[in-house]
Target: Glutamate decarboxylase
Amino acid sequence: MALSKHIDPASLLAAARAHPHHRLIHREHRDIHEGSYASRFEADMEVPKFKIPQTGVSSKAAYQIIHDEMDLDGSPLLNFASFVHTWMPEEANKLMMENMNKNFADQDEYPATQAIHTRCISMLGDLWHAPKGEAIGTATTGSSEAIMLGGMAMKRRWQNKRKEQGKSTQAPNIVFGANAQVALEKFARYWEVEARLVPVTEEGNYCLDPHDAIKYVDENTIGVMVILGSTYTGHFEPVSLMAELLDEYEKKTGIDVPIHVDGASGGFVAPFAYPSYKWSFDIPRVCSINTSGHKFGLVYAGLGWILWRNEAMLPKELIFELHYLGSTEYTYTLNFSRPSAPIIGQYFNLLNLGFEGYRRIIQADLKNARLLANALELSGYFKVLSNIHVPLPKTAEGLVGAAQKAVGAVPDPDDAEAYMKGLPVVSFRFADEFKKQYPYVKQVWIQSLLRNKGWIVPNYNLPPALSDVEILRIVVRESVSGDLIERVLADLLEITESLMSNPDVSMLMAAFSGQLSLRAEAHNGRVTKAKDDVTPSNTHTYAREC
Ligand SMILES: *Cc1c(COP(=O)(O)O)cnc(C)c1O
Model:
């Protein structure tokens, strides 16, 4: 993602002129926007792209230029790569626009916003079984900021405890699975905590296996981060088993290691889809939980939440008391200014949907994900790695289960609790038999060919130890309807079959190599890695070095 470099237009132009296709168009000024047809009286305007224009243009012209360029982006509706939600009802859009100009940092000036923030924290505390009246938390710009705050609180508590005991605070470490999202690794590297990445295995559902994780824990472990909803496959890492093993560890050694749950997606999935599942503050070892309001909290990008079990989990020296905008305010965040609108949007969703509404939406997401997963497996071309479509084995016991088994009955498709738990995510790859039969067909071509039809479905490698396995992944969000699933499936199978039946198509794809290079300019402004840079050896997550 976008760490952008300054662009020297002269070199860009030289490169553009040399490009065999661009050469065919005789345009001298590629560093100037041309063609604001919406403002007909500014036809001869000159708006440079890479330095601030000396004089501006009318708002109409500026709007048209940028609006048209934005149309070259992918369609958010067809973006199956992201967990971040892209649709809200009209009234939410209106409310958010009405509050677009409010800075959340101005606590004294906007007391109603503050009250709404407090209510959101309270509702989340309730949803996550926090002890009554004790949880404390804050909105953030996303789970990444929330994870930084959660990690820092654990680090500081560990340091304070070690100092009290007269022990060294030199070498803190943190334990999480190699499947971790980049935010966890960023925390470790930016805040100088050794990241102990637990390798993932197929048997361990491609995520943290607590029996392996416990071997990485020692007196310098500030905490274990358990991910509720692995970004690769949607599997829930078992929080309660991790807690049990850490309880045993404490009994043996006297060392108390806390758990932070990264519920970026799962924090808004598990409580509604699986209300009796234990993963949150009802497990005493869970000290803090983060979630992304902009994922299954159903708000647009820009909102996260973190809650701590109680104030004792939040060392006093991390909380800042501010006395300058009219009153005394307390904060524990990385950003000062931030938009209020996403918080208002979250409160809108909570009031509008209620528990039943959120439950209805997540059940529908899971049902659509199962529909897709089952169809992919039935095609015979694909193996599905996510498992929310697999009926729960526990029904094999008991009378009902035995009866179901006898008649080969399939559990109620509307009941998420009859299936394995997880996020509404479908991760899949070519079946082994398919690979044997069509060794020349590359899985990444599916991504490219789907993109030609507008669908955005990423193809990428699993974490280290399994990094030779490539997966395609579709995240089923509220706007991914049954109709869309049906269409993407039809395209997916048609593409696969055309690659199978036609070696010429394969040849073409091999030459094309999946590079859709509408993105030349974006690439031009990208930071590149110097050849002699050394890759730090302790990094093994999907956060590839640039
Ligand atoms: C998305 C995600 C994050 C990062 O969250 P942002 O809200 O995008 O900052 C962290 N952990 C997991 C498991 C995620 O899925």
Q: What stands out?
A: Residues 83, 142-144, 181, 183, 227, 229, 231, 262, 264-265, 292, 304 surround pyridoxal-5'-phosphate (CB under 6 Å). The chain is about 35% helix and 10% strand.
